[in-house]
Amino acid sequence: MSTLHHFIAGRRDAGTSGRFGSVFNPATGEIQARVPLASASEVADAVAVAETAFPAWAATPPLARSRILFRFKTLLEQHADELISLIVAEHGKIAEDARGSLTRGIEVVEFACGIPHLLKGEFSENVSSGVDSWSLRQPLGVCVGITPFNFPAMVPLWMFPLAIACGNTFILKPSEKVPSCALRLGELFQEAGLPDGVLNILGGDAETVDALLANPGVKAVSFVGSTPVARHVYSWGSAHGKRVQALGGAKNHMIVMPDADMDQAVDALMGAAYGSAGERCMAVAVAVAVGGAADALRERLVPRVQNLRLGSGSDPLSEMGPLITAQHRDRVAGYVDSGLAEGAELLVDGRGMSLQGYEHGFFLGGCLFDHVRPGMRIYDEEIFGPVLCIVRTNDFKGAITLVNAHPCGNGAAIFTRDGDVARVFASAAAAGMVGINVAIPVPMAFHSFGGWKQSRFGDLAIHGPEGIQFYTQLK
Ligand code: NAD
What we know:
Layout: E1 2-3, E2 6-8, E3 11-13, E4 20-25, E5 30-36, H1 40-59, H2 62-78, H3 80-91, H4 95-112, H5 115-118, E6 122-128, E7 131-135, E8 137-139, E9 142-146, H6 154-165, E10 169-173, H7 179-191, E11 199-201, H8 206-214, E12 218-224, H9 227-239, E13 243-247, E14 252-256, H10 262-274, E15 284-290, H11 293-306, H12 326-341, E16 345-348, E17 367-370, H13 377-380, E18 387-393, H14 396-405, E19 408-409, E20 411-415, H15 419-428, E21 433-436, E22 452-453, E23 456-457, H16 464-470, E24 472-474
Parallel strand pairs: 1-5, 9-10, 9-12, 10-11, 12-13, 14-15, 14-20, 15-18, 17-18, 20-21
Antiparallel strand pairs: 2-3, 4-5, 6-7, 8-24, 13-23, 16-17, 19-22
Helix pairs in contact: 1-8, 2-4, 2-7, 3-4, 3-7, 4-6, 10-11
The protein binds nicotinamide-adenine-dinucleotide.
């Protein structure tokens, strides 16, 4: 078992709190590393380092910052296999999923490389006789990122490259379940020429987060994680005078109209519901089947879910890896129990799986429910596992009512061949990201990412144009 470190002022730092978190290998169930959890005084020291580095970095021309980002992007590509191995080892997802998510992260670095253009202000000549007026955007100071376990590279890359490109310094607090990839990202950025102290990475947990939220040196906080913690980070960070964007959990619906191409819809559902074992904030958790679509979906989905190849993320034959911890696997299995108890029909049961050679891994097979209804816990709550619920409705109106009544509103999708229905859905769906015949409508890096309702607290979304606004103040 290895012992990890913080990354402060360009150096590995063993930490002094004496507190550690366990990093598991979810495929084997073994603890493979321990990560130091920063105390409030270590947080204060890291903030002081980032504050000291801020004036020189803010004064560095955007073009010079951009050239470091270009080198960082090249290093990320050169080290992609190493980063993917770290993601697979600590998160458990299959290597292909890890590669895709790393690519999405690198795209944010590509976007940030355009920072000289993105920071251009506005100019009005002669707003009054002989008077000109202009606006520009300046960095904030020390920004903080707090990230979830499910995307060890992508979600941190949504945040710090853009914040740093804007001239801020940064403290990243990655999930204590998957810290190694983030630590390696920090070293690669340093190798690309980033001055010491501009990016600092702290191992930590709730105690570390609360110290960051209360520290007066921190100006802005980006958070991605579950809804209860997002709400806490938003309210506690705002109460301490910080700008906060806090992205929360999800319960994404995909409506399948009777006129949809059913094979296409089922292919999309398999990827969207069971990819990364359902541990994605944009996973489809509910298939809303309209009219005759329900039986057509059910008939096609059952054999596909039964035949999902479960295995270690490093095995190229695996289609789905384990869940993040034994506790989370048991929690997801508990939802399956509750679905049965509340009267849903369990079509495929993935509980109780044991894989040869991985008997202690945190595996759960794909689960599929039909006849799920609002009011059941499996419908109302985010499960964050490989469990897809089919909900039946008679018509499009009933389907969109379901989407819009759910407290979460991250993504929503519809599969149909009717252009009018698609157009009405795109306009009326109460979700931040909407797909038409696209199950996981994730915006590219040059657009902004964020949900509605309880899936996001704070005005501005992540990366893209709203990311630039978030990490700068208007003058
Ligand atoms: P989590 O909320 O448990 O943890 C997220 C981060 O917050 C971690 O760094 C953790 O150390 C910290 N944290 C945990 N509890 C805390 C507390 N009480 N106070 C302060 N900080 C705390 O989330 P997770 O389990 O790591 O990730 C899964 C969740 O993230 C899911 O709900 C998923 O939907 C969500 N998520 C959302 C998005 C999005 O874009 N909306 C993206 C990815 C994941």
